[in-house]
Design brief:
The chain is α/β, with parallel strands linked by helices and 350 residues long. The chain has 12 helices and 10 strands. It has an 8-stranded parallel β-barrel, surrounded by 8 helices. Bound molecules: ligand PBG.
Length: 350
């Protein structure tokens, strides 16, 4: 009887944990002291959709709280963003006119150059990033010139019909980057996954004495279903096929590192991985292997998904949005492009 009790005592003792990580979770202040990752306004970049017209803020249905805005609405918006302490915006333009070569992208009076002037007038301290891609400007919705017989002077019979003409597109990217930089963009962000885009844009900018303009490359951009709502927001769905001949296969991590290596070699100043949530391993791997500042894009579908679940009462909007943002930062992103940017900064202040 006595022996049995002794046995029980010893085994209870042995079960008592020596290491108790829970000690550090007991008080809110203590949790703050040991917190490894924090979000600040400096982490964010806010995307803006700009269009021609007057006095309009058109709600984007699939992205609650986001709008297409006319240029006259940008001054207020830019001041608000700057007042929140968010350092930068990235611009997406909805042009008045679309054609096979996306000519409005390199029109100095086009939508993005006009918007850049308006933002810089209202909030000169705000960094303006120009998303450099042709999909918003082409009538077919692809990110460059498409090889179509007789459609334009770029038709190349040796290349497949429907192929995105890489090198012809590079020339247009160079022109458009110069135009956006001359309008006052601080950073050009090529997002089309066109081979050679970083090197070409760097050379073009330098050739126009624009050596001070940075390049933030969408180095590893995946062909993702999470861009769905953006295509409504930017009015840029491809009219045929999809973007898989230039954007990356979601299955490939090693190839993402190859893409990054190429953009680094071509002179990129900052890197980006996109989307974010389904690609945290890529963010983490790029962070570990490269020393350049790294951005992650929490894309339209990631935003829409959280909002939709919250609208149904299935998730807590603020909690889940902040949790996904901290996850992206913890994975290794220095900057997060997010439609939640303004809300997140307000939530962090509460
Ligand atoms: C343009 C571009 C896209 C996004 C950013 N730049 C669309 C696409 O590649 O299809 C997506 C952003 C988002 O979904 O929030 N190339």
């Amino acid at each position: 009887m006595l022996i049995d009790n002794e046995k029980q005592r010893i085994s209870a003792e042995q079960r008592r944990p020596v290491l108790r990580p829970r000690r550090l979770r007991l008080h809110p202040a203590l949790r703050r002291m040991v917190r490894e990752t924090t979000l600040t306004p400096d982490d964010f970049i806010y995307p803006l959709f700009v269009r021609h017209g007057h006095d309009q803020r058109i709600p984007i249905k699939s992205m609650p709280g986001q709008f297409q805005m006319t240029v006259d609405k940008l001054a207020d918006e830019a001041r608000q963003i700057a007042a929140l302490g968010i350092p930068a915006v990235v611009l997406f333009g909805i042009p008045a006119h679309k054609d096979a070569c996306g000519t409005d992208n390199y029109n100095p009076d086009g939508i993005v150059p006009t918007a850049i002037h308006a933002i810089k007038d209202a909030a000169p301290e705000l960094i303006v990033i120009s998303d450099m891609c042709f999909c918003e400007y082409t009538d077919h919705g692809h990110c460059g010139i498409i090889n179509v017989p007789d459609d334009n002077e770029h038709y190349t019979p040796s290349l497949p019909v429907g192929y995105l003409l890489n090198d012809a597109t590079l020339e247009l990217l160079a022109q458009a980057s110069i135009v956006h930089a001359q309008a006052g963009a601080d950073i050009i962000a090529p997002s089309g996954m066109i081979d050679g885009m970083v090197g070409t844009i760097r050379a073009a900018l330098d050739g126009e004495a624009l050596e001070h303009i940075s390049i933030m490359t969408y180095a590893a951009k995946f062909s993702s279903g999470f861009y769905g709502p953006f295509r409504e927001a930017a009015e840029s769905p491809p009219s045929f096929g999809d973007r898989s001949q230039y954007q990356m296969d979601p299955a490939n991590a090693r190839e993402a590192l190859k893409e990054v290596a190429i953009d680094v070699a071509e002179g990129a100043d900052m890197l980006m991985v996109k989307p974010a949530l389904a690609y945290l391993d890529i963010i983490s791997a790029v962070r570990q292997q490269y020393n350049l500042p790294l951005a992650a894009y929490q894309v339209s579908g990631e935003y829409a998904m959280i909002h939709a679940a919250a609208a149904n009462g299935w998730l807590d909007l603020k909690r889940v949005a902040l949790e996904s943002l901290i996850g992206i930062k913890r994975a290794g992103a220095d900057m997060i492009i997010s439609y939640f940017a303004k809300d997140a900064v307000k939530w962090l202040e509460e």
